[in-house]
């Protein structure tokens, strides 16, 4: 089994990812850490516990993390995720409470254990990377427990929060820049599962309605119905769930290594991920114009059907 940790701001699409990570037999979900983003931190925590409960995984440790980005206010997205972040589905909310420690401490502890045992963990951030930046700045030794980071965020093409920037990076650009720099320095491989592939793993309403009647299947159906309603189509992408698919089945994802920078200023471009696809960009590891950028595996294409089937088979 592959040990993984999810860092989330649940959210309808992180709910799709959580269901998969909690139920797939090849993943060992070590912990889930929460951060403010799509909704405020209190709702993120309840939503995360609620989804894990539907998945039958009340054993998974959950911790509260940063409520706010490093430098700016959080700007939630109730127009996408509903006021409660779970699409106002009227799904029974978990009464479980998260663990007493901070997310950064839970991440540190799990990763130090992993470093000690040699069973390295894949970290899957699906949200603003505030918790991860705080972790790598506070306890850089914890990086020794990381096999890799596969994050949902950014875009080589257009953004969604703005024309330039994808929501997770736009919410906390400094955190993303810190994580990329720290990962490069500490030798942790990074994959960016960005908007270029985000919408390409689609579940049809018919597929969602054939899932069955377990609590997990029922929630999965409701999530897809809600997202279909939002996008006014007869199906919906599993969004961040695709990043979890990429960890389970990397062969379904096409990636290319590119230098990657995060725009930290700019009137209209703050939070943009600048993917340097120029032919000679590999030379930028010795960039004369400034600090060398991190080189990241950027997802350029995904086998949508393969990942949709993977998701359907796990969440039912
Ligand atoms: C992102 O949008 C948010 O709704 C999702 O949680 C995902 O992380 C894509 O920008
Ligand atoms: Ca998210």
UniProtKB/TrEMBL annotation:
Domain of life: Bacteria
GO-annotated molecular function: purine nucleosidase activity
Record has Hydrolase as a keyword: yes
GO cellular component: cytosol
Keywords, sorted A to Z: Glycosidase, Hydrolase
Coiled-coil parts of chain: none
A GO biological process held by the record: purine nucleoside catabolic process
Residue ranges of domain Inosine/uridine-preferring nucleoside hydrolase in the record: 4-307
Pfam families tied to this protein: IU_nuc_hydro (PF01156)
PANTHER family (UniProt xref): INOSINE-URIDINE PREFERRING NUCLEOSIDE HYDROLASE, URIDINE NUCLEOSIDASE
Protein name from the UniProt record: Pyrimidine-specific ribonucleoside hydrolase
